[in-house]
Design goal:
Number of helices: 18
Number of strands: 16
CATH architecture of the largest domain: 3-Layer(aba) Sandwich
Number of domains: 4
CATH topology of the largest domain: Rossmann fold
Strand content: 5-15%
Length: 468
Amino acid sequence: MRQPPRLLWIRSAIPGPDYLGVVDHLTAFILQVVKNPAEALDRQRAEIADVIFVEFPLAGWEPAGLLEAIQEINPRVPVLIRDPQGTVADAVRLLKLGACHFMSGPLDDSELIEHLEMAAEDCRLRQVAAGRMAAATPWKQLLVGESRPMRDVEQIIQLAGPKRSTVLISGETGTGKEVVARALHLASPRAHLPMVAVNCNALPENLLEAELFGHVKGAFTGALQQRVGRFEQAHNSTLFLDEIGDMPLELQAKLLRVLQERELQRIGSSETIKIDVRIIAATNVDLRERIAQGAFREDLFYRLNVVPVEMPPLRQRAADIPLLVHHFLENVCSAEGAPVKSISRETIDRLLLYPWPGNIRQLQNAVEMAVVLSGDRMDLCPADFPLPAAKARKSFAVEPVHAVVPESGLDFDLAMADFQRSLIEQAIHRSGGNKTLAADLLRMKRTTLLAKLRTLETRGNVISIKSA
């Protein structure tokens, strides 16, 4: 049986008698009425609603600001807005920003009910379509996240996956480079065969060469029988070379020749073997620095870096943390054969502020540890995530500004606006486009940040970094 749609109603007071007909007609919904927009956003992070209805006035919030805050958490949720004092210009602006409907003037019961039901049905149809799309494109099931950096990665996979072009994935340890490699493989015509993976840092040079190219019997001490290498195993499929930056220089030259000629020789053999292999490489080091140090071949770098993919660290896609936490919770609890545990909003807020130096891998381990430490308790709390408190929030010292007033003078307000714009741009960049986290970095309320952004835009000092 299909679950009723979840309606989150944000208004300054509990609906009174004037809404009696509306509330009576909403029995088909799971209804939650929240008076505090900040609490509503917390609920949306913990449990995504199917439809959101927002009624103004709401203290400290404007329609555009709250709509943007909702969309940062879930850009696909239908949002209906009612503002009795709203104008036609307000309606046009909010609809352009992504609201699915705007109401002004006196309450119209039938109009409200009709649009709530339409939004719920639209949400249901999109969920069905998304399920079919995921079934048709299995690679999308590997990726978890709605942030702008992850949407950029998804777009590259969609475009490059079906091609045979070589891909170089770079990023910090634990950012999910192998997951992206598997998604690229599943998005390709080679997906009917398994992807073959090799960690170039896990074996010494002599064994790595045999691992990649294979050997014949008696080729070296210990070669008691012929062995097929990973390149041959990946014929007509994909070979994933992890930690490519740690490959020895001599072996890099042999790898370059294989990539250029699409053929190889097993160790100890003069027979040439043709191969058809799609190469995906990954590195957690800056290969350009390795080239400058003489530790990596420049020609091999350009051969590998045909389609570059930069994996963002988790601190730059913090908006995805709630989705990732729920994803890992489901996986861990399912593996243990236990019901899926819930997690408090306070806990999610704490996880959002932590810098996660170990990225997604660290978050996954933290969730598994929390499930274990919580025992039979079904609700996870901050105590289940023993993260170092000192690292939960970094303090950034501001360097003194040595401004010089020119002989001709300057516009003080414009100079201060430029300085504010620079700080806000840096905060938005550090937070991966999440304005809530950017405001936290600047030690200000989110509404204050939005007000400053509007002021800067009014003055023509537009922020150049787009937000997620």
